[in-house]
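Handout, page 2. Input:
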Amino acid sequence: MIPFSSIVQKAKEYRPDISKFLRDMIGIPSESCGEREVILRIKREMESVGFDRVEIDPMGNILGFLGNGKHLIAMDAHIDTVGVGDRSLWTHDPYQGYEDDDVIVGRGASDQEGGMASMVYAGKIIRDLGLGGDYTLLVTGTVQEEDCDGLCWQYIIEKDGIRPEFVVVTEPTSLNIYRGQRGRMEIRIATKGVSCHGSAPERGDNAIYKMAPILTELRALHENLHFDPFLGKGSLTVSEIFFSSPSRCAVADGCSISVDRRLTNGETWESALQEIRNLPAVKAANAEVSMYSYDRPSYTGLVYPTECYFPTWVLDEGSPACAALVDAYRGLFGKEPLVDKWTFSTNGVSIMGRFGIPCVGFGPGHEDQAHAPNERTWKDELVAAAAMYAAVPSMYLERHSR
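Output:
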């Protein structure tokens, strides 16, 4: 039998340690491709609490191993953050942070270094209570997710050669269990024109004017995208606009926009591109529609290029991985969990979206705190998440043996 009450009690005992570790991580700026120092801080904590093996791979992801059983179970937190934006919107310094009895405030508190803090102390709870079994627990602190979600796990699977039986993604879920998300892609639309002096615009061909009707048709396209009963509707928004021109006194010879496209079940990257290419204004302007690619070096200098396509994924509610989390939740907290989905994107786009490895989400913190000023998380949720992560491997093995 899994000692649920002992797990909860141990997690409560480590509340101050979890909080301090999270405050330390928040205090180290760690935007995408600048995560080195926070990775080293995590390494020290993993070694201190008793992980059997701690490695940093060539991309810069940290991999902490506990146990040596045949069932490889992974838990993941990306440990990079976005920037702080307008500091005047922050009540407290985003890196010095703030805490009281209930909350911790600072960049990365919910998205998503809180999940990292809870995972590391789940490892200590497993060690303290002798909860090991025929499994190996892999705890990953992954890089560049905010820049290119899932790239880290493409590398872990394809280059590190690691393929878990399932992965718990610890992005914020408000302690609900999430089993899917819409995918996304980053699309570029470009129009070309001919420049001339601005005093006689009729001599040229303005690329910005060609883009104007495309923007209107994109807005209308958004309203009519496919709807899925679980994941909801596909969406798009224009997120950036660029131009090229010889000067302010000239007709623009180039214009391009970026489109953030969210893909629901039943949509593909091919269909998403074709929908845009079929727009009358796109055809009239002979606009080029393409997908962005990503090739920014990690903090180690490694370049691992990929297309900016991040597939949709949904895990069946009756799957062993999802069922293990539901059973563990019931045992720990004595109530039924809410099983739902994320609005935003996670590393699951690679883990399950690209590679078909079952993926299920459970995390401290709230989705609406992500990227927001005065980002915060809740200490009670950090403790509950640590208990959950400690119980899940044993629960999975128990279900596996039935």
